[in-house]
Amino acid sequence: MPYQAGVPRRTIYALSTPPGKAGVAVVRISGPAALDVWQGMVRLTSKKARERGVRPWRLERCIIVHPETAETLDDGLAVFFKAPKSFTTEDVVELHVHSGRAVIASILSALARFPSCRPAEPGEFTRRAFEGGRLDLTQVEGLKDLIDAETDTQRRLALSAAGGLARARFEDLREEIIRALAMVEAIIDFSEGEDIEEGVYEAARAKVQQLRSKIENYLSDSRRGEILRSGIRLAIFGPPNAGKSSLLNFLAQREAAIVTPVPGTTRDILELSLDIGGLPVIVADTAGLRHTEDVVEQIGVDRARNMVQGADVSLCVLSLPEVLTDESRVEIPPTLEPLVGPDTFVLLNKQDLTHSVPLSIIGDRQSWAFSLSTGEGTKEFLDGFAEALRKRYDLIQDSQAGQPLLTHARHRVHLESALRFLDAFLETPAEHVVLAAEELRYAAQAVGKISGAIGVEDVLDSLFREFCIGK
Predict the structure, then answer these.
(1) How many helices (H) does the chain have, and how many strands (E)?
(2) For residue 356, what are the contacts with CB-CB under 8 A and spacing of at least 6?
(3) One domain for residues 290 and 275
(4) Residues 267, 334: one domain?
(5) Which residues form the signal peptide (predicted)?
(6) Are β-strands 60-65 and 367-369 bridged in parallel, bridged antiparallel, or unpaired?
């Protein structure tokens, strides 16, 4: 819960590692009574360490005891982080103990005996880090994304945000808007007979035009950052018995979908989360697209069309012998043509049943020919497809070039808001300079909301609830 002025802040505690059998578990305690917990529960095993007393930032071998009965609860390690040099900027104690369920339960029960301590709420340690200035809002989001990362690209994106790169980019943008605002306010302050250079307002307008172009460039990323954070939605579609389910099984490296020679086997959508070339991909196997009198199958066909139309990328799987013409060219069936868009890759399965086909047979559209039954050409397809996805979605080079990573929808919302205020400034006549200054002030505030420099209490409540208890 957020800190309230005048209300004494209580010390919080929680298990910071996942529950279950493991070598080590970490119990974290943060707040003004953290040192009291150390003195009440930590017994250093080394005589020299006991004589020396508590030394911050040093992992010490110890016995963990009950604060009232002195009963030994576990044999482990403890470390004290002295404020403000800790994650939360408060005094912090971490107990590194065995992860048995009974051990953890006994330690948490013992911590409850301290009147000034209470169990932490989800994300409360991170919230205290934010309120203490250790992290800004983009770093908090990056930390959450890092915990949730399942692929290497997600890890790198999250680490970039958690490390403060996004914070620096957006803060630079806000400062540029403030500099333009300072130029306009100088006109207001010195308008009555004071010396001020001519052309200051025009210079401010030129600066705002540059900032407007910069923000438009940030917003023209096709939502790649948001897509990578949540996963690239990939739909597999095509006629019945072309090998769609076999392709899903190949990508998943397991029998995820039922494969039979009977057309219409797949009726509902089957989704899997996969790592393809380090990118997070949510793959959907859809029903074969054909006209059918079967009511249930037709529902599956309709769902398949909707899935393809809403996907970020799609794979159109065709049976090569059935679409190869006498002129050794491939013709996409008319029923599929409306679904084959700029984000569609064409896959020609069952190459083993016909002669070799060049990749140029479908014009300039990227395509691969292979055989899922023999494995011929499948490695080339997987390598090529992964590279195509990386070229389209990998944002790491953008971030290194100074482009901020818009990994959350709210980043886009605030930038769009700032853009509207900048447009309003440019549309304001020079004689209404006071109103023009207000538009720039609002634009700076909109950008400030991205990092949390401007109040965003509703966003904070929602974000921190998504964290685990001990983070």
Answers:
(1) 17, 13
(2) 369
(3) yes
(4) yes
(5) none
(6) unpaired
Beta strands of 238-378 (E only): which ranges?
A: 270-276, 279-285, 313-319, 344-349, 367-369
Examine the domain organization and report whether 235 and 356 are in the same domain: yes
Three-state DSSP state, 404: coil
Task: Say if strands 117-119 and 11-15 run parallel, antiparallel, or are unpaired.
Answer: parallel
Q: What angle do CA 83, 118, 148 make, to 5 degrees?
A: 75
Report the alpha-carbon distance of residue 363 to residue 340 in Å, rounded. 13
Q: What does each of the 471 residues of the chain score in pLDDT, given as a tens digit?
A: 454 544 568 999 999 998 888 889 999 999 999 999 999 999 999 988 888 889 999 999 999 999 999 999 999 999 999 999 999 999 999 999 999 999 999 999 999 999 999 999 999 999 999 999 999 989 999 999 998 888 888 888 888 888 888 888 899 999 999 999 988 888 877 655 455 556 788 888 999 999 999 999 888 876 888 888 889 999 999 888 888 888 988 888 876 554 445 455 555 678 888 998 888 999 998 877 767 667 776 777 778 888 889 999 999 999 988 887 766 778 888 888 888 888 899 999 998 888 655 554 565 678 898 999 999 999 999 999 999 988 888 655 555 555 667 888 899 999 999 999 999 999 998 888 889 999 999 999 999 999 887 655 655 666 667 777 666
| Domain-embedded: residue 265 | yes
Q: Phi, psi at residue 292, to the nearest 5°? A: -145, 150
Domain boundary among 338, 360, 393: 393
Domain that holds residue 61: 11-120
Determine the 3-state secondary structure of 306 from DSSP.
helix
What is the tally of structural domains in the chain?
A: 3
pTM, to two decimals: 0.75
Which amino acid is residue 262, in one-letter code? V
Query: How far is 340 from 316, CA to CA, in rounded Å?
Result: 7
Collect contacts of 385-390 with beta carbons under 8 A, ≥24 apart.
385/276, 385/277, 385/345, 386/276, 386/277, 386/278, 386/279, 387/277, 388/345, 389/232, 389/276, 389/277, 389/279, 389/281, 389/313, 390/277, 390/278, 390/279
* Residues 72 and 19 placed together within one structural domain of the fold: yes
Based on the fold, state whether residues 264 and 354 are members of the same structural domain: yes
